[in-house]
């Protein structure tokens, strides 16, 4: 039985995270859930990769992190987009659409 | 901003790892909870929801580690862990570590010391701006390097287009007078452009100008520039000295400038004072302007390469112009020899230095091989440990990194010890270095040297660790854990054996080199110098001051000194000469006979000129062959007479009776001297150089009075012990005249081989160390081997092998390795010893006696190294062996 490939396309994880967080501050699992929902299950995010990426984006200054207390008195880390993160997101988005449409054009080309 | 975050977060991770770890754990835990909550919301029981979430998440540890592995601080952290681990290993095996570190320290220390000695000579540019544009130019007469004449310099500086400036220089030794303690100074007479050619300016005062270099006028004014060292030593660094007068030889000289502290005069490192030449640009042929006695240095114009400059010099030499008359001894018919100043300075010592560098590389290699071997031997004990670590999930690269961290740490300890060692060694090197070694003042352990050592240490740490690390890993594959398989053990033995062979081979190369040098030095000292060096004390006596202007006064002074010295108890003879054999003096003139057989017309006319006092030949022990010696009747008014040496007579006169022949010394316009005697050949420069031709005249008959003369004293007792009494005797006549360069003739003979002795000393030290290391290598291999084969030995002896059989077995194994090493080493030495050719004397690089001796020495030493393990093996009792393991 073939399972469909649900890996996030290489190099797009950062963009997906930034986009997701741009809507509202979110914790790690929230991001995973949002990506899965919006992509209708096409992409599943690997938790290890996600948390590592979050650390990286935070250190790059694109995300701010904040610890909040949860209902059952645990700590949860919420990420929100910074101004630099917004700029980065815009850049990556335009970059992506330019390239995606180019790929689409190539694939559509008549043989 | 982000860089700051990067740093801050990383540092926080380093400083407070547990807090950082808790954050990660909390985040992962929260992730799991949220995931479980989602499953629960779909209707699973809390336990099932959690289990499902766990399944989706995978191992929590792996996730945590994945997040944790991000960031630069992790590299720091694993490195620290590696270092901690390495320190732990070293503390568990301190003896091993000590042996390895000391071995490396020997290698690194020796390399560092040698590097610091050769760096200024071979690698560093000269301490002047654009040093590659400086060229040293010689008169190439007869293919040899001859000092140029002032006339040649005048012609070149007017005609050439390739050089910005040129300067000439000659040594001077003025005496600083008018002070409580007169002192003889080393200095140089230079043309006005001297410092401009070098590109250095005085730190205080002004540089020489053309006006300072006008033709000599006894009434002055005279000017001088002094070194920072002299300024501090004798004038308390007084800045008002500039513009003031000091007395040199009782003549007032104005100090116009003081050189900067770091100024290094590579052509005459001892020089502390400079004055202008003040030669006559009218160039009278009979004046000193046409003597070959000036060093000529030029600074090539920017953009002109040295080949172009050299070519132009040749063109000038070939095309004589009527405006520039050349005397027959300076016709420039053989052109010039011109090379970069750096090359010329290092020319004579470069072969020796390169040989020494080669030797130290060999030594370092042997040390590294030894340590590698040691680590490999240790490998057996850690194979189990490595297997466990691999089984627990340590990656291959992580394990190799850890093993390398260990050898790097060992190498660093070795390097640190090595630097300490090098500091001592460098002082010793400078003290022992031959006087010809240029820039010996620049030999220090400085930042360049430390950087070199740090780099070397790192490379060594990696090199030495690589083989054991790979070996250790290979041995740590799963399955190797419980019991080492025979194949691994034998493969690892093969590596170790090859390393021992390499060690023996390298040691042999060093030993052969040392042996060849030793025989060269022996041959050298067996050469007859032409005089008798035993119990002869020599020193230079100088006259300085106005009253010695008059030649008569100085002759009288030297005569009375000679009389006084002869009265000193123990003295059997005393005499003066203007230059002394093996003193480094080199004053030669062209000597032209009135009658020259056609066959001898092309012979080199130059000969050393000695102005001597009566009794010189007897005092030196130079044998008279025919005719008579010079005596007190050959004074100022008497007919001019000369004595020449026998090979000179033979070559230049071709069988004519030398007695009664007439000759010119120097310019042809000079007077005729009549040969009255012939003496034996004497070595002037070095025992390795064939005896040089000589012409002897008496001091009063020479055209000028030598202000510095060598006193030769022959004694019945210990010559060196006479020095104080002789100083007192001279001081009683005139306490203001400096006495310098006191040494016995035997010391001078030894000093002429200083470069070879220096190389020999280093090679002996390196070769001895190499021999010891090779012996240790052989010993530790066999000893480890015997331990590993204890059971085999026991079985053998149980089966009836005698002790002798087992002894022979182990010895054979050791000697096979040695034999192989010797065979390879002999071939290597035959190739490598060619690099020594310039240092050898009287032996060929393939001298069979040396090779045979060295090979047998190695056999004996390795037999000794094998004997202990062999003896142990022979004493293994079957019962012990079977219980072993």
Offer a few descriptive terms:
heterodimer, A: 111 residues, alpha+beta, 3-stranded antiparallel sheet, 4 helices, globular, B: 885 residues, 25 helices, 23 strands, 52% helix
What does this structure look like?
The complex is a heterodimer of chains A (111) and B (885). In chain A, helix 1 packs across helix 4 (83-108). Chain A has helices spanning 13-23, 28-38, 47-59, 83-108; strands at residues 26-27, 63-69, 75-81. Helices cover 55% and strands 14% of the residues of chain A. In chain A, a hairpin with a 5-residue loop joins strand 2 and strand 3. A three-stranded antiparallel β-sheet of chain A has the order 1-3-2. With 111 residues, chain A is an alpha+beta fold. Chain B has 885 residues and is α+β, with helices and mostly antiparallel strands. Chain B starts with a helix and ends with a helix. Mean pLDDT of chain B is 86; it is low at 476-488. At the A-B interface, helix 2, helix 3 and strand 3 of A face helix 1, helix 2 and helix 4 of B.
């Amino acid at each position: 039985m073939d399972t469909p490939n649900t890996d996030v396309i290489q190099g797009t994880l950062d963009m997906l995270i930034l986009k997701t967080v741009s809507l509202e501050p979110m914790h790690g699992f929230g991001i995973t859930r949002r990506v899965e929902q919006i992509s209708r299950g096409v992409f599943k995010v690997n938790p290890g990769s996600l948390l590592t990426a979050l650390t990286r984006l935070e250190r790059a200054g694109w995300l701010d992190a904040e610890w909040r207390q949860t209902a059952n008195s645990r700590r949860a880390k919420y990420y929100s987009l910074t101004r630099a993160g917004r700029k980065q997101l815009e850049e990556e988005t335009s970059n992506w659409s330019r390239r995606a449409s180019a790929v689409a054009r190539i694939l559509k080309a008549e043989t | 901003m982000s860089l700051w975050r990067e740093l801050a977060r990383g540092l926080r991770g380093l400083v407070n790892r547990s807090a950082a770890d808790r954050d990660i754990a909390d985040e992962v835990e929260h992730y799991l909870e949220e995931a479980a909550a989602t499953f629960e919301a779909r209707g699973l029981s809390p336990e099932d929801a959690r289990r499902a979430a766990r399944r989706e998440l995978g191992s929590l540890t792996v996730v945590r580690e994945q997040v944790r592995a991000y960031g630069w601080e992790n590299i720091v952290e694993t490195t620290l862990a590696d270092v901690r681990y390495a320190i732990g290993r070293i503390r568990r095996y301190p003896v091993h570590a000590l042996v390895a570190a000391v071995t490396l320290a020997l290698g690194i220390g020796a390399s560092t010391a040698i590097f610091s000695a050769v760096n200024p000579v071979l690698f560093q540019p000269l301490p002047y701006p654009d040093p590659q544009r400086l060229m040293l130019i010689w008169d190439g007469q007869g293919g040899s390097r001859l000092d140029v004449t002032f006339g040649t310099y005048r012609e070149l500086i007017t005609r050439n287009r390739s050089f910005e400036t040129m300067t000439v220089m000659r040594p001077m030794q003025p005496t600083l007078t008018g002070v409580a303690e007169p002192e003889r100074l080393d200095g140089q007479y230079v043309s006005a452009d001297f410092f401009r050619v070098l590109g250095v300016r005085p730190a205080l005062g002004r540089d020489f100008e053309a006006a300072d270099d006008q033709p000599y006028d006894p009434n002055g004014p005279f000017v001088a520039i002094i070194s920072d060292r002299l300024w501090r030593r004798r004038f308390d660094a007084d800045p008002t000295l500039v513009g003031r007068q000091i007395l040199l030889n009782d003549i007032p000289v104005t100090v116009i400038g003081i050189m900067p502290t770091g100024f290094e005069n590579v052509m005459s490192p001892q020089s502390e004072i400079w004055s202008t030449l003040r030669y006559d640009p009218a160039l009278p042929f009979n004046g000193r302007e046409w003597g070959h006695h000036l060093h000529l240095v030029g600074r090539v114009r920017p953009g002109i390469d040295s080949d172009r400059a050299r070519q132009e010099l040749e063109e000038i030499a070939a095309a004589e112009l009527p405006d520039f008359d050349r005397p027959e001894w300076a016709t420039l018919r053989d052109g010039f020899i011109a090379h970069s100043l750096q090359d010329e300075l290092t020319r004579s010592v470069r072969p020796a230095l390169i040989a020494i560098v080669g030797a130290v590389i060999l030594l370092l290699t042997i040390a590294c091989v030894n340590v590698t071997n040691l680590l490999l031997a240790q490998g057996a004990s850690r194979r189990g440990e490595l297997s466990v670590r691999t089984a627990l999930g340590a990656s291959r690269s992580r394990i190799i990194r850890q093993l390398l961290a260990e050898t790097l740490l060992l190498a660093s300890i070795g390097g640190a010890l090595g630097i300490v060692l090098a500091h001592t060694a460098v002082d010793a090197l400078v003290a022992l270095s031959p006087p010809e070694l240029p820039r010996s003042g620049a030999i220090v352990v400085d930042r360049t040297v430390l950087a070199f050592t740090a780099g070397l240490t790192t490379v060594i740490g990696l090199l030495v660790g690589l083989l054991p690390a790979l070996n250790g890993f290979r041995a740590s594959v799963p399955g190797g854990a419980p019991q080492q398989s025979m194949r691994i053990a034998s493969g690892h033995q093969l590596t170790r054996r090859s390393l021992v062979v390499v060690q023996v081979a390298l040691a042999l190369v060093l030993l052969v080199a040392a042996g060849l040098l030793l025989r060269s030095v022996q041959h050298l000292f067996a050469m007859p110098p032409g005089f008798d060096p035993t119990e002869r004390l020599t020193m230079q006596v100088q006259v300085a001051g106005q009253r010695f202007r008059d030649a008569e006064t100085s002759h009288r002074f030297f005569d009375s000194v000679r009389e006084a010295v002869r009265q000193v108890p123990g003295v059997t003879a005393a005499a003066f000469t203007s230059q002394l054999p093996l003193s480094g003096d080199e004053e030669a003139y062209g000597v032209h006979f009135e009658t020259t057989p056609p066959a001898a017309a092309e012979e080199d006319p130059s000969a050393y000129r000695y102005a001597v006092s009566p009794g010189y030949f007897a005092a030196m022990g130079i044998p008279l062959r025919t005719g008579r010696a010079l005596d007190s009747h050959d004074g100022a008014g008497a007919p001019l007479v000369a004595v020449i040496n026998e090979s000179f007579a033979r070559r230049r006169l071709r069988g004519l009776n030398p007695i009664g022949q007439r000759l010119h010394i120097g310019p042809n316009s000079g007077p005729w001297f009549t040969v009255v005697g012939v003496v034996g050949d004497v070595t002037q420069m070095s025992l390795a150089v064939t005896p040089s031709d000589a012409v002897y005249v008496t001091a009063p008959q020479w055209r000028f009075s030598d202000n510095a003369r060598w006193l030769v004293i022959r004694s019945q007792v210990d010559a060196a012990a006479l020095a104080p009494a002789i100083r007192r005797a001279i001081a009683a006549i005139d306490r203001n005249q400096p006495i310098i360069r006191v040494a016995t003739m035997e010391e001078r003979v030894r000093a002429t081989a200083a470069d070879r002795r220096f190389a020999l000393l280093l090679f002996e030290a390196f070769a001895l160390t190499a021999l010891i290391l090779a012996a240790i290598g052989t010993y530790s291999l066999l000893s480890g081997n015997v331990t590993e084969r204890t059971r085999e030995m026991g079985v053998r002896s149980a089966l009836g092998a005698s002790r002798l059989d087992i002894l022979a077995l182990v010895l054979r194994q050791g000697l096979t390795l040695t034999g192989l090493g010797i065979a390879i080493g002999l071939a290597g030495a035959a190739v490598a010893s060619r690099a020594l050719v310039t240092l050898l004397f009287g032996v060929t690089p393939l001298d069979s006696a040396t090779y045979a001796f060295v090979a047998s020495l190695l056999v004996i030493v390795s037999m000794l190294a094998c004997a202990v393990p062999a003896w142990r093996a022979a004493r293994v009792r079957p019962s012990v062996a079977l219980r072993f393991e």
